[in-house]
Amino acid sequence: MDYEALAEQIEMAALQHGEAYDLLDRRIAALKASESLALPPEIDDWPAETCLAWETGTGDGLKSTAPFGITMVNSTAIETNLPEKLREQGVILLDFTNAFRVHPRLIERFYMQKAIQAEQNQLTALHLAYQNAGVFLYIPKNVQLDQPVEINVIQQTDQPFHVHCLVVAEENSRVLVNEHMQLATATPVTFFTEVIAQKNSHVTYQATQLTTTNHCYILREAAQRRDAKVNWREEK
Hints:
The protein has helices spanning 3-16, 21-34, 84-88, 96-102, 104-110, 122-130; strands at 69-73, 76-81, 92-95, 133-139, 149-154, 161-169, 174-183, 189-197, 202-211, 216-224, 229-235.
């Protein structure tokens, strides 16, 4: 498919999904940029992207007892637990589709603007163009969480899967995130995590991944202000 056909497919899919025009414009610009960008050095080849689609997931057979967390199956948040006390303090935990609809200005301020740039390489551009799942976690100023946030992402689709986790920790906040990722198909996957750590915030991000896919590009980056700390921990 040529650029015009790909752009038309993205536009039709995004509008049917109810996306804002600002995000759609960024998708189309990223698609165009991908034509002239190189793959990241650690990736030798990547299957051609042809379709933006959101795949519904079900929670059949899945159980979660986490008091604070979210479980995504494909593009669907099947469970979100946010204690009322934290909700009253302004903490936000949403799947990306609803986050864009409810908090568009907040998302646009940080999403692929500070930690990861769309034009870093071909796959960062394609990720923005085709992103179809994700989680948004927002910790307001001076809120220090004493319990971990559980983010569970499970792939049960044969469609390309492009997941984005965006964590924003405002000034003097603290949070521990436990991310669990299960990827079990041979379809292309990009899984990006952005942490925005404002002044004197402290973020610990622990990621556990189980993947059998042949084409998987994982990227985790942080943008840190003065005296902010971000600790990455990874298990396989």
